[in-house]
Design goal:
The chain contains four helices and 13 strands. It is of the alpha+beta class. The protein has one domain.
Length: 241
């Protein structure tokens, strides 16, 4: 009996190891905050690449008025050493980011995470989020609603060989009577930095402001084809209020 039990346990461990080995790379999200005044929004994604086992950390600094990257960014750091730690690669990315916006300034202007659905959330709608844009009750602001639509969009030859690739559009819906629907973003092509995406979802909404709201960021996860399974990365669509 003991021999049978040991054999069964070995099989379970081998199968569990196989599942882990086939797992994709899901980047962790760290919202860093805003520059004073809300003119720049920053966030970090970090993790360990599937296949290589190398740790990486990417920092994104976005001009909220134009929804474009600040000059000199994104900051992408990878340590080509399987023994390197996540903390080491994150420290290197943070050091480079200090030249863009000081970490202390971002922390002092963190803003509010008013909505959040991690990649692992299965019960929430990944394509719609409605939030009270500030933690004030009863609410003094109109609800902020965003909706994401996916559509097929051809990628390059490498992407087309892997299957269907998708782009997305992001809409802001005004809740008040007679409110308008505003287009925040719509892909015309797939940038090479995004890889070969096949799905998207709204992961979080971050707002900034004191007496009045002045900026927001919608964090969107991007699912793509990875080496050992689906990979997830992050991007943001920003704007002024």
């Amino acid at each position: 009996m003991n021999r049978l039990m040991r054999l069964a346990l070995t099989v379970v461990l081998v199968l569990a190891g196989a599942v882990v080995a086939r797992a994709g790379d899901v980047a962790r999200l760290q919202i860093l905050g805003f520059a004073k005044g809300g003119g720049i929004f920053a966030f970090e994604e970090y993790g360990v690449q599937d296949g290589s086992g190398f740790p990486y950390a990417n920092r994104y600094y976005i001009d909220t008025a134009t929804d474009t990257f600040v000059s000199g960014t994104p900051i992408r750091v990878r340590l080509d050493d399987e023994k390197a730690t996540l903390q080491a690669v994150r420290d290197k990315a943070r050091e480079q980011g200090e030249a863009i916006v000081k970490q202390a300034e971002l922390e002092a202007n963190a803003g509010f995470t008013v909505g959040g659905n991690p990649v692992t959330e299965l019960s929430a709608d990944p394509h719609r989020m409605v939030v009270n844009p500030r933690p004030v009750f009863p609410a003094i602001d109109e609800p902020l609603e965003v909706r994401l639509d996916e559509f097929t969009l051809s990628g390059d030859d490498i992407c087309s060989s892997q299957g269907e690739t998708k782009g997305f559009r992001l809409l802001r819906i005004e809740a008040r009577e007679g409110g308008q629907t505003k287009l925040l973003h719509e892909d015309k092509s797939i940038p090479k930095s995004r890889g070969c995406p096949n799905g998207y979802g709204i992961g979080a909404v971050q707002t900034y402001g004191g007496d009045s709201l002045s900026a927001y960021a919608v964090l969107i996860w991007v699912r793509g084809y990875g080496f050992e399974g689906p990979d997830y990365r992050w991007m943001a669509v920003t704007g002024r209020l």
